[in-house]
Task: inverse folding
């Protein structure tokens, strides 16, 4: 298990399997939690293997919670990395200000 407040991070720099993901968000706009099949942090325009919408919250101090628990664990051949993006199909890099404190991500993996 790894937990992070970063808007992008490398979970595992080798092949692995994701069993579940939890994302807590206090951002007011919709964003996308992305899982990438790579051994390094996602860069701008990286294409995710999986992109899941994270709803915006309507009240401060009332976080939105996304829990992703696939029926079949998701396998990654090259590595496991994640990113928070404002685009569904590609990673759009954001400035760290405003993103780091809006999200808390936990990934359970092997």
Result:
């Amino acid at each position: 298990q790894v937990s992070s407040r970063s808007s992008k991070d490398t979970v595992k720099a080798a092949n692995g399997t994701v069993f579940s993901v939890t994302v807590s968000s206090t951002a007011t706009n919709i964003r996308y939690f992305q899982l990438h099949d790579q051994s390094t942090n996602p860069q701008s325009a990286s294409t995710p293997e999986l992109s899941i919408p994270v709803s915006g919250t309507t009240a401060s101090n009332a976080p939105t919670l996304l829990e992703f628990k696939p029926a079949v664990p998701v396998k990654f051949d090259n590595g496991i990395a994640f990113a928070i993006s404002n685009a569904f199909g590609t990673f759009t890099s954001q400035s760290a200000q405003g993103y780091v404190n809006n999200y808390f991500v936990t990934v359970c993996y092997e």
